Amino acid sequence: MNNTQKYTIAIFRFLLLVLILGLTTDSLMSHQTGYRDPNGSTSGLLATPTPASLLLNPPTQHPAPGSVSPLIFGTNLAMYDTNDQFVNNYAAQQALKDLHVRFIRMPFRTNSPGKNIAESYNIKAMQAIKSIGAVPEIIIHTVINSPLADPTALSDDIIVLNDMANVFNTGPIYVDYGNEDDNGSTLGLNQYEYTDNWNNAINRIESKLQHPSFFKFGGPVNEDSKPAYLAYFAAHAHPTPDFVVWHEYTCLENNTADECLANIQKWNTDIAKTRQDLNSVGKQHIPFIIDEWNYDPLAQPHDGRYDNPNFIELWTIEAFNVLTDKKNNILASAHYVATDNEKYRLIDGNNNPTYQGCAFKAAYESIFGGSSSGTPPCSSAHYDSALTLYHASSFSASPRCSFSAFCVEKSTLRRRRCTTI
Length: 421
Fold this sequence. Notes:
Elements: H1 3-33, E1 35-36, E2 42-43, E3 74-76, H2 85-88, H3 90-98, E4 103-106, H4 119-131, E5 135-140, H5 153-168, E6 173-177, H6 191-206, E7 215-222, H7 227-236, E8 243-248, H8 257-262, H9 265-280, E9 288-293, H10 309-323, E10 330-335, H11 355-368, H12 381-386, E11 388-391, E12 406-410, E13 415-419
Parallel strand pairs: 3-4, 3-10, 4-5, 5-6, 6-7, 7-8, 8-9, 9-10
Antiparallel strand pairs: 1-2, 11-12, 12-13
């Protein structure tokens, strides 16, 4: 056998080896990345499934950080009394920091009907918020003569806002003027009454602040979406609010889990209608905050929904899908509630993430990346089996999805859900 023949045989063997390796690799990759739908067909469109808890880096096709406001990842403090888990417990503070809570809405209950929490405890809460690097929002009391209101609201508001300025030393500090004053079981104010009250109170409050430039005031803090109410307020408020704000929920006790999920899409309609009504009065530039949201405002403890990962994890991802949608242009939002509530909370009494806390964390990291240490990982067997987010490498076969998407395989729904968070 001459040298030419030996060289030809060597080349042939090399090409054969490459072909064999290529076929083997294709087989392995097909096995690893194939997605089997409920009907049994297999597609290689998706990358290897990655548990939500382990998804630490956003794909390069996601919007750059800053195009979606990180303040959307906020929560409310309970502060029902002076035993608040977040305020009193360093481990709880670190747990919320590890979930990437970036915005915290704080009530104060000094001279509130039935409660009277001392100023020193309010300051302790402010210091806890500052310690985790969150942007603060404070609910101040409506200045009104009513048995359902703080009788010394004006002075109490001035004190708490000056305390906020002294703790944070800078702005922005967001301020809700009142809380669900449109609710018939509280003050029951219509848009004319609330706006008149704002016009009589805000300038008086601001004139007594040591650092008024730190603060951004917003209203009307409606219990749900009321675009016409909000537009009237924006058009006739003096001063013009720095933001407009309302609350969103999706269902009540008699609704099914699927109805609770489907109704999240109503938030898109609420946001669009509010923007349309603001535009009609020339106030389209005012930012939006939705600073209380969850699935059921009247949920009962252990109602079979919140403590069911098959429901609450998917519901939370779908909620963030709406809140972070760039066309909705939401400035900030606050989940209800961080701690001390058996109905819904981000961490339990042992400072471990709840199912909703894990979904909160996963949604943040899917957009902004990063990971955290200290909090036990959100990767228990029942969590990962209940909800798995699939990082989408290609969705050419599904026009509803794009590169900046996740597909959620939900066995109980028997279909893929694609969310563009």
